[in-house]
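Here's what a typical entry looks like (Regulatory protein YycH domain-containing protein):
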Amino acid sequence: MSEKWVEHIKTGLLIALVLASFLLTGLLWLNQPGEKRSYNPLDAYTINPIYDEKYNDRKIYQLAAPNQMIVHRKGAHYWLLPEEAGYEQLLRSMQSMSVSDIEKIGKVSPDTWRNMFTRFTGVELYFPDDVSLEYADIFFQESLSQHYSISHLSSVSRIWFFSNPEKKQNYVWFISDQDQQIIQAKTDIDLENLLSKMKHPLSPSLEAVPATGKAPWDPANQDEPFPRMFYLPAQPVSLSEKTYPLEDISADAMIDWLFKDPEVRPIPINKNEDLYMYDEQMMTVNKSNRFMVYSEAVEESPGEIQPVEQRLSAVNNFVQRPHGWTGNYLLDQVEDKENAFSEFTFRLYMNGYPVYWKDRNFIHPDEIKLQTNPVENAVNVNKYERSLFYLTGEPQQKQAALPDKETLIKQMSRQNLSLSNVKRIHPGYQAVTTNQQVRLTPVWVVKTTSGQQVWISSP
């Protein structure tokens, strides 16, 4: 046989081997676990039209807004909660305020405290916890950190706007319980005018309760440190127990938005979990408890941490892209970690009240967590964990109530909790899941100075 024909035969065999290789690869691909799906971008465009319109076009100051306002009018005190109309009106005005004549206040006299609590019209802003000045800066259009007096506060416990009728001037106090300092500034907010246009808050009348039991307006306590204040009702608060249906976000919808290749297919880890991988991207989905953890492999090299406002903006854009704000989520905590990594935790609010799942073994709809890291003077979101359930529809309602001040304090005492060791008390919901539904029970959320969190319901 001529050398020419030998070369032709070799070439033919090589082509046959290549074709056989392609055929075997195709057969293996078709027989891998998981079903090949067709990609329809409309399926992932929106999770729920109601939530999409309401929560996926928000600015970062709305995410970082206080979770509670206390309105002071004519000696009475009221809650003003997220989702009330007046809350949003005040939020916009306070966010765009300007300040001047900033000064550190010395010892506040009992007469001034009495005026603040009984005479002056005012609004106190409360965040879920004491916050850094950088955190508080997110909320305001004008940077607070640029002002020397304010920049020295190690933390901000509450921000109190008030109108002084004698001086015909509006002021704002930045109060640090930790530093025992108050920074005062004049502000251009016309508080009396704003509140006169608002509907009366829906909350009952509240009593101001000092954590130490020593009222700052009592002359006998003028040499005492000013205490943390709690606002509690003298009578039980009527608040319905609500049961909502749980809707499910498909894993495919999240993959379509998050992955560079929307055709990535599941690799079963066990009967309850699937793993999705593409290049540096990875996502695990718990099928029985319906939650996901998405992450990207990043180099944990030291980097310069970006301003918290820039990090929060990157997080907001990341969640908005797949229309992931499936409810009213507010920033609950920012935790800075090693190598300039940061973790952001957002909490769900229903009817203005924060939601806390009773079972902490899995990821539930009450929290959404994201992690960021710096990349070339920008911010990268490298981790995203959330439930694939969300609350929707009209709830079933059952009459319930929150305990009054005296009952609450007695129940706290039974759990060895003293007001002097408490940092925050506010109303909320405790959630329990049963049969594709979630029951929200009204509770008092008690946060201690040691970081413990306790829920107290009606006895």
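The chain has three domains: 60-234, 243-391, 395-457.

More examples are in the samples folder.
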